[in-house]
Design brief:
four-stranded antiparallel sheet; 2 helices; globular
Length: about 290
């Protein structure tokens, strides 16, 4: 992606800073060089010289809204200049209008849907803009914390700022494993959670396909245990866990009791590794369009 129009590919990424109050999302850019390498990553700034930040809304404690997930550059309004669309932890989208040559207006605005801000089902919006239905305008596809792939159809027409319909499911999420049950690669039928997507004609047949990366925890018995023993211990552990969480909620205003319960929570969490082995990993799924 040539963000600043100098003929070289650039890399754009979302990140967040714990140094800001509240914690806020930042956009990092690696400007491309003539030899195919990149300059050192730097914070992308607006035309006011300040870092681009998703604005904090009316709820000043809702800082999680400000953490960007995936930024993407696209000509949103058809004026020939790249604009910036980003997702966030909440599942909505923000637009920063472009001024050309890699410059963007400092104030971001929520992308509107029908009756309010456009939002995916779930959290962690993952914008990918492409003409999915081949009608000449840009549609919005997204992954989600809940897995699967969603699609918001654009009804505006070519060369106009998008008018996006509510998200509909394009690819269903796979069913997650039941608590206490083993889960290995052979059990997986599709992306379960935390999907990130890419759309392209993978097999060169003239149709758009989807790559979906996900996050999953593979589950197996701890060393020396059978699957049945793992299930028995897991069921007992789950009862104890639910009881201690209920106690934590009921003693929220008692600092002394909260400290005691916290120790039991930590102890229980550590004990879990004695009967169950969990391996957090992820896979990439390819969906070829028919």
């Amino acid at each position: 992606m040539d963000l600043n129009g100098d003929g070289f590919n650039d890399i754009l990424s979302g990140s967040y800073s714990r140094d800001s109050k509240p914690m806020a999302g930042l956009f990092q850019v690696l400007w491309g060089k003539a030899d195919g390498t990149f300059q050192k990553a730097e914070v992308l700034k607006g035309t006011d010289g300040e870092p681009l930040l998703i604005p904090l809304g009316a709820d000043k404690d809702a800082w999680i809204d400000c953490i960007c997930t995936r930024p993407t550059a696209v000509d949103w309004d058809g004026d020939g200049k790249l604009d910036l669309i980003t997702g966030n932890f909440t599942g909505t989208f923000y637009l920063f209008m472009g001024e050309g040559k890699g410059r963007f207006l400092p104030k971001g605005e929520l992308v509107a849907g029908e009756g309010g801000p456009l939002k995916i089902k779930g959290n962690h919006s993952d914008p990918f803009l492409i003409d999915w239905d081949h009608d000449g305008d840009l549609d919005l596809l997204s992954g989600s914390s809940e897995g699967g792939v969603q699609w918001a159809e654009n009804s505006a027409g070519p060369g106009k700022p998008p008018t996006l319909k509510p998200f509909q499911t394009l690819i269903e999420r796979a069913t997650p494993a039941a608590p206490g049950r083993t889960l290995d690669e052979a059990d997986l039928k599709g992306p379960v959670a935390a999907t990130r997507i890419w759309v392209d004609d993978i097999n060169s047949d003239g149709k758009l396909d989807i790559l979906a990366g996900d996050m999953i925890t593979l589950i197996s018995p701890a060393k020396g245990l059978s699957e049945e023993e793992m299930k028995t211990k897991s069921a007992q552990w789950q009862k104890e866990w639910e009881a201690v969480i209920a106690e934590m909620n009921s003693t929220a205003n008692d600092e002394k009791k909260q400290a005691e319960v916290q120790k039991r929570v930590q102890k229980l969490y550590t004990e879990r590794a004695s009967f169950i082995r969990e391996e957090m990993t992820g896979f990439v799924w390819l969906y070829l369009q028919k």
